[in-house]
Please model this.
Amino acid sequence: MQRSDILTTAAALMPAPPLFAISHDAGTTVKEPILDQARALDRFLMSIEKRAFRIARIAVRHDDDALDIVQDAMLQLARRYGQHPSEQWRPLFYRILQNRIRDCQRRRKVRARVMAWLPGWKSGEEPPPDPSDTVPDTRPLPVQQLATDEALQTLESALTALPGRQQEAFMLRMFEGLDTAETALAMGCSEGSVKTHYSRAVHSLRERLGNVW
Amino acid sequence: MVTESRDEPGDAESGRERERLERRAQALFEDSVERVDARTRSKLTQARHAALDEIKQGSAHWRWLRAPVGGLAAIAVAAIVVVAWQGGQRTGSEMAAVPLDDFDIVADADNLEMLQDVEFYAWLDDR
Model:
């Protein structure tokens, strides 16, 4: 092969300037769906974050643990299912969230069992209260707000007393508004089981709350 | 919110009580969601941003996997050019037969002038 032939061939194989421009454009078109997906995920997470926190908070009864659970669920959703269609995100997110809640509750039980052997350890799942929480709030609370707070505490206590699966079914259906199929996906069980858990949860809550409500 | 009918047996009174409980629970929950404090909202925003970084980094990882395709193609072309160039020049045995003196000529900067007029020196050598 002649030297000039080789150089001609190499030149022909090298991308010409217009091709660079095309490939750059192609790069931006590849990037665009990723940004769209990120924006869609941002909107989705923003729409559910406070509700998810409240659900986790009712289940684990601790603010920081609930925040950790929600953060972990968000990360897992983005990492594993970020590229999935956005319609699937809600049940998937709540499935991850429920799994994290169960993990947290399981860890606490194990820790409580282990710590119970240590001398001087007091049983109880509640962590020590934040000293700032014990400072009396001097602001006057409206009577209606006080009544609402008390009713909420009563509801949370009743929900906490429910078996885990009943609690999940009730919160996902009532608070998050998932339908039976979505709740089944989130809980990893059949729709029939969801109906049973939900029905029992409502029955138990009515018995517990009684005339308060 | 939940709108579909549920397969729960019971009389009308029981149904009404049940609906009342559901509505009350929903209203209390919504109220508590609206009253989530600023510190928690800030933490949730941070968590959301961390999740979004994750999806962006995830796509960046895919770009890393895709990027070498272009680079490898360029390297392959360069390798072909070099191999073809050397093949066109001389074979390995020919390279071995080249006297070491020739390397001195190439390496010595003083001989560059002579190299530029090599045909003249070849003619001179024949004389």
Notes: The longest helix of chain A spans residues 17-60. DSSP finds nine helices and no strands in chain A. Residues 58 and 156 of chain A are 6 Å apart (CA to CA).
